[in-house]
Amino acid sequence: MAKSNSDNSIDGNFKGKDILSIDQFSPRDINILFKQASKMRGIAKNARPSDILKGNIVTLIFYEPSSRTFNSHAAAVKQLGGATIEIHDVSSSSVVKGESLEDTIRVFEAYSDAIVLRHPIKGSVQKAADAAQFVPIINAGDGAGSHPTQALLDLFTIYEKFKRLDNITAVLCGDVLHSRTHHSLIEGLSLYKKNIIYLLSPKELKLSREDFERYSERNIKLIEIHDEKEIPKNADVWYWNRIQKERFENPKEAEKYKNKLTLTQKLLQERGNKNLIILDPLPRVGEIDLAVDADPRAGYLRTQVRNGMYVRMALLSLVLGKA
Ligand code: NCD
After folding, report:
1. CA distance 209 to 61
2. Disulfide check for 56: which of 21, 44, 82, 93 has CB 3.0–4.6 Å away?
């Protein structure tokens, strides 16, 4: 929603706010969201439809492919009795005729109460928020930049497991350079005390030095490693994410990293602790061996996916002022 130079921190009040970055949140805001998400789990399990978002329309516009983020937002609106306008594939919209992002946003804000947007170019979601005059924009993935709603559901999943978000040791593995889910999770964990994050990646795919410096100034200890043998045995969270091949100038280059740093049962046996939770925002494209799925520590495809819908139900109800 357009605002001139205003501070967009949540500060206890979600109503009407764009959700662009985890940096808008304080631990107190995250608590409010989590309380609401727990209630939403009850609503989602209830066979009777809720009418919390009755009369609301939410537009989903995704300029990039998505399964979970798109459909969990759509399901979240429907679980709460609202309706959606769904543009899964912009090739069927006026975008192919050359319409600008700003014009597209101005059009859909006339039809709806909020817009959930995914875009391949970092900075585009902010551009959309600047263009929108009446409705909040929710960032559903902004190029290689950030993915705040994913980090919120990841934090919720970690919180439910450990009942805390401080004193966590996490290993984030994969394409740390391009992975927006990694970036937003680092930002989220840096809101709490005494968290340590090991960033396990091929050397060429470590965080950009700009991001590394920016994050290092925060309340978080970042340790870059490039070999599985350096994974600490006391880690609470293993968070694997695929190589982001669409972010490479030459997608063939991405092939080089395929099947490197795969999470296998053997690795889990050698370096995983008993109380670990294993997460992956998905899609999985080889970074976790299928045999790991049966391990009770595997949270992806289980709680993590479900929590995605509850957290988005919570966020939408708060942003639309219905919580
Ligand atoms: C992630 C994304 O889009 O960044 N997926 C998702 O939202 N669940 C992760 C990925 O695509 O690798």
Report:
1. 32
2. 82
